[in-house]
Amino acid sequence: MNVTIYTDGSARGNPGPGGYGTVLLYTDSKGNCHRRELSGGYKKTTNNRMELLAAIAGLEALIRPCRVELYSDSQYLVKAFNEHWIDGWMKKNWKRNKKEDVKNVDLWKRLLKAMEPHEVSFHWVKGHAGHPENERCDHLAVEAALGEELLTDEGL
């Protein structure tokens, strides 16, 4: 099955309330089109962590192996895979160089685990130009950020 995931992580004030939005679009075996929206609100979360959470939420929502096209406005997330940063970090035991640890290792590992059964390709969306679904994800992120029950991004 082919699935398209549009993600947006929006930290509203840093380290203020934040949120992420994720939209999954897919067609079932009968040819019917479906859409699933996921959103979550977090406090004490940076933009990069929010983008990773958005991608993880989308991938963890998939039950069976799929071919996934994942769209994000985070160059950090997309370049990590398209330019093989992630492979280098893993080979160097999660170090950027001899002294500097890679940030967000807990979420990178969780994202790699979520990707395991799928064939995933990452695409960078510059802002939201021409991608109304990604704009919709931004609205989901705002709604999550304004929600009453915000979670804290600790111990994920």
Cα separation of the termini? 29 Å
User: Average pLDDT across residues?
Assistant: 86
Q: Work out the radius of gyration.
A: 15 Å
Helix segment tally: 5
H/E element sequence: EEEHEHHHEHE
Shape: globular
Sheet with most strands: 6 strands, mixed
Biggest sheet, strands in spatial order? Answer: 5-4-1-2-3-6
Q: Provide the low-confidence segments as ranges.
A: none
The helix fraction, in percent, is: 25-40%
What percent of residues are in strands?
A: 25-35%
Q: How many distinct beta strands?
A: 6
Structural class: alpha/beta
Describe this structure in words.
By secondary structure, this protein is of the alpha/beta class. Helices cover 35% and strands 29% of the residues. The protein is built from five helices and six strands, in the order βββαβαααβαβ. It has helices at residues 47-60, 75-82, 85-91, 105-115, 132-146; strands at 2-11, 18-27, 33-43, 67-72, 119-124, 151-152. Strands 5-4-1-2-3-6 form a six-stranded mixed sheet. Helix 1 runs parallel beside helix 4. The longest helix has 15 residues, at 132-146. The chain is globular and about 50 Å long. The two termini are 29 Å apart. The relative contact order is 0.26. The mean pLDDT is 86.
Task: Provide a quick synopsis of the model.
This protein is of the alpha/beta class and 156 residues long. Helices cover 35% and strands 29% of the residues.
Secondary-structure map:
Blueprint (H helix, E strand, L loop, with lengths): L1 E10 L6 E10 L5 E11 L3 H14 L6 E6 L2 H8 L2 H7 L13 H11 L3 E6 L7 H15 L4 E2 L4
Parallel strand pairs: 1-4, 3-6, 4-5
Antiparallel strand pairs: 1-2, 2-3
